[in-house]
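Hi R.,

Here's the chain you asked about this morning:
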Amino acid sequence: MAPLPTWPRLGAWLLPPLLAAGIAYPLGLRHGADSWRARLAEQQAAEQRRQAEQAEQAQRQLQAALQQQRRLQQLVGEQESRLLRQQQDAQQRLQAQKQRIEYVVQQDGGRYGGLGPDSLRLYRQILGYPAAAVSAADAVSTADSHQTPAADAGLPAADLLAHAADYGAWCQQLEQRLTTLGGLFSTEGPQP
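And here is the predicted structure, written out as tokens:
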């Protein structure tokens, strides 16, 4: 028998690997594509989990912020109520002090050329100082009524005491507001 030409022998030898490669290549492509799809799906699932965790964290932060806002609103409401009560109390004290002014001025009478002992005690109390005992000899002016200057030379005791009452109430309101604001910004919360 005559020997087969080299091409056909070579073709018979190369044909099975070429056929296998022809079949394996599409299978390999499909496997590679499936592998990449699986990796992509895994990455997408990981990204979705990360986004879900971020959304949950943002939700928790929002809930905490809302809770903090409610707490602060409640605190502000309590402070507003407290400040309103304090202002009402201050108005009542001011009215009571004005009534006391009339009484004290009558008690001191016209014996003094300025504030008498009772008027001086009330003046100190209205401004927030302790009402130290003031004797008649320690009064602002113990001059004889004949030596008292004319009415247009100074302010009457009633006017001085009324001014002290208004000024004292104003100072106390400022102090209350400052205390209230300090309570809002302190770490311990409001101070009673």
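One quick note: The chain is about 75% helix and 0% strand.

Cheers,
M.
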